[in-house]
Amino acid sequence: MEDGCNDERQYDRMKFLKKILCVTVCISMILLCPPETVQAITNASIQEKEKEIEEAKKEVETLKSSLTDVEQVKKELEKSKSDLTAYVTQLDMELGTIQEKIEEYKQLITDKEAEITETTEELNDAIARQEEQYEAMKRRIKFMYEKGDTLYLELIFSSEGFSDSMNKADYIEALSSYDRKKLDEYIETKEMIALCKEELEAEKEILDEARAAVEDEEAAVSSLISEKEAQINSVSADITNKEAAIKEYEDMIAAENAEIAALEKAVAEEKARLAAANASARTYDGGMFAWPCPGYKRISDDYGNRMHPTLGIQKFHNGIDLAAPAGTPILAAYNGDVVAAAYSSTMGNYIMIDHGDGLYTIYMHASALYVSKGQTVTKGQTIAGVGTTGRSTGNHLHFGVRLNGSYVSPWNYLK
Asked: Environment class of residue 356 by beta-carbon count within 10 Å: exposed (0-12), middle (13-18) or buried (19+)?
């Protein structure tokens, strides 16, 4: 009877020891495994990061090689200096190309600033993961140092038979495999941190190059505008016959007016067609105009008779000139339909908007046009950027208003 009790107590003791061992193994696994706070770093993600770094380095080289060669541009322009109209047209095309580059570089700066923020977050996440893994490894090493090999021996010797012994061996192998896996993950995290830092440096280099490129291209624009101003003034100075100079100016204005009058005629014919078809045409409701160049109120040349800057005689100025930096937004003064968004050697890039009842607004010398013919625009909508294309010697907006085929003072609609 006493032997039976001893056997039963021995069996209970073995069961208790097995439970203790299982709990010990579980605790070991928990101590090793850090909380999963970020996406696992894999060999594929490391390869992707290396690819991004390589692309960033190529992007820096592309930036360095794509800057405008101003001297070469000036050399090409020399061929057309004998014909002022051809010269201005060609130079304006060059200015337009450079302005597009500047906008692309500015967008690149915005994109790179966002990418740097993203890469910085990746770096911080990787550092946080490394710290978690390092702490987990320290706890694991401490645990194994204190337990020594006794944990594995207890697992083996507590087996009830060959089959149970094989199961315990599988547990030990799984635990060792887990240790190796976590060590590999720690090494990969460390490599990812190094790559994030390298990518961050590459992205910052692109950002610096893009900012420098904007400065270089803006300097190129300034240089070409100075060249254009000197050439226009030179041509004016070379005309010794004052009457010829005046005639050239008047011919220029006549050509400008003829182009605008032709547009007005086309609009009038279209409205007549709509009336015949009993379709409604646009009408002007009498509202006041929006200021076409927000933030810039300096008038460099007002509407009306004034002393012409190069001819030295009184001439009529058919609009108001608003001085503003290149690229400053130009707004539609009122609701209307775009009847022209084009280029001419005198007006440069220009837009003409029909507001109904014979009322039109005209915006000249733009660096870029953001709307097209046939498009409907609303009051205050951005339609172009300030520039100095056409017969212009500095960045400004020439804003004109026409009513029933004649220019009228813009102040009638802006006050």
From this structure: middle
Structure tokens, 36: 């999963």
Q: Which amino acid is at 119?
A: T
**Average pLDDT, integer, range 324-353:** 93
Nearest-angstrom CA–CA distance, 168 and 146: 21
Q: How far apart are CA 217 and CA 230, in angstroms?
A: 20
The pairs formed by 117-125 with CB atoms below 8 angstroms and a separation of 24 or more are 119/196, 119/199, 119/200, 119/203, 120/200, 122/196, 123/193, 123/196, 123/197, 123/200, 125/37, 125/38
Strand, helix or coil at 329? strand
Q: How far apart are the first and last CA of the chain?
A: 117
342: region left, alpha or beta (phi > 0 left; psi from -120 to 50 alpha): beta
Quote the tokens at residue 65.
Answer: 């090689």
Angle at which helices 84-147 and 150-157 cross, to 10°: 60
Distance CA 50, CA 194 (A): 10
Residue linked to tokens 């300096």? 298
Under a CB-based contact definition with an 8 Å cutoff, are residues 324 and 396 in contact? yes
pTM check: above 0.70: no
- pLDDT for residue 162: 43
Q: Which one-letter amino acid corresponds to residue 61? A: E
Distance CA 283, CA 235 (A): 44
Instruction: State yes or no: pLDDT of 132 exceeds 70.
Output: yes
Give just the sign of the alpha carbon dihedral 308, 313, 315, 320. positive
CA-wise closest residue to 352 among 326, 367, 333, 325: 333
Q: Are 405 and 261 in contact (CB under 8 A)?
A: yes
